Amino acid sequence: MYIIGIDGGASKTEFAVADLKGNILDRFTIDFTCSPFYRGNLENTEKVFSEGFERISKDYDLKKVRFCYAGISGCWGDKRFNAKIEKLLMRWIKNCKAEGDLHSSFRSLTDQSIGILAIAGSGTAVEIFLENELINFTGIGIGGKDYAYGIEYLLLNGIIKQDSEIGKLVLCKHSMKDIEAMFYDRRGLNNEIMHSINKILSTKSSSDKKLQNELKIINGLFVARWMYKLTGHTYKYDLHKLKSFDLVLSGSMWKWDLLRESLIKNLKKTIPNAKILYNPRIRPVEGCVKIAVEKIRLQGRMSS
User: Fold this and answer.
1) DSSP letters of the chain?
2) Quick one: 2-108+282-303 is in which CATH superfamily?
């Protein structure tokens, strides 16, 4: 018997097949989002699910799948899609649940029920997990899209030089005229360039001192923004009164060492009881599998 976890991110979808104890037997990624949130329909969702379940069915009997849990980007606060996604999933797996991806991202790194999730990927979100309540704040930090607009602004004003690493990366596909038009039309840099910039932040910036100094200008703003939001929410919901709680960092922007290490250093001063968890090798789909295991156990207790 098996369970299936599906993590539908903003740009990719990861599938995992596991046994009933949560041990992952197989996993793979489809380089396309299954989230209906970005296009307003289920067309891409259906295509990605069809491809994913077809690949799984080659090695596993779908009739032996006890439960499927899908955490889909953008769908946490948008209930209009969740029921439709579950109905779609039921074509392959009758016993299933679809929610936003915040819960699974949090659970991928912790088994605690109380804590904070800070997502800095293509977009941003902070999720507060309390005993009997989930509180979601979106767009309150600085993530990939915010960063893309920041890069455009700094290029236009000459703070980031056109011959710098980031400048050359952006301008190899766009002229300064294009950058100006994108900035004032609020279209921003496309995802391909944004992810390339993230790679520079997480690799070259650690060894290139010139680039690192250039990026410190933006890093200070990012850290201040995240400090204000995370510390504020911690005190607002009395998490600072707990002996300890888990604060999970999730998303591609946290791969940037300068940003992540600066934030952690400062958070230790303002909320010392926060246990800050980050591991880029552990994926949100592992949180989907954890939740699926718990759903099966809960169903078992209810039936008995």
Assistant:
1) -EEEEEEE-SS-EEEEEE-TT--EEEEEEESS---STTTTSSHHHHHHHHHHHHHHHTTS-GGGEEEEEEEETT-SS-HHHHHHHHHHHTTT-SSEEEEESHHHHHHTT---SSEEEEEESSSEEEEEE-SS-EEEEES-S--HHHHHHHHHHHHHTTSS-TTSHHHHHHHTT--HHHHHHHHHHT----HHHHHHHHHIIIIIHHH-HHHHHHHHHHHHHHHHHHHHHHHHHHHHTTGGGSS-EEEEEESGGGG-HHHHHHHHHHHHHH-TTEEEE--TTS-HHHHHHHHHHHHHHHHHHHH-
2) ATPase, nucleotide binding domain (3.30.420.40)
Q: Which CATH superfamily is domain 111-279 in?
A: ATPase, nucleotide binding domain (3.30.420.40)
> Would you write out the chain's pLDDT as a tens digit for each of its 304 residues?
999 999 998 778 999 999 999 999 999 999 888 888 766 678 889 999 999 999 999 999 999 999 999 999 877 656 678 888 899 999 999 999 998 888 899 999 999 989 999 988 767 788 899 988 888 776 655 566 667 777 788 888 888 888 887 788 788 878 888 888 878 876 666 666 666 776 777 666 666 666 666 677 677 778 888 898 899 999 999 999 999 999 999 988 888 888 899 999 999 999 999 999 999 899 899 999 999 999 988 887 776 6
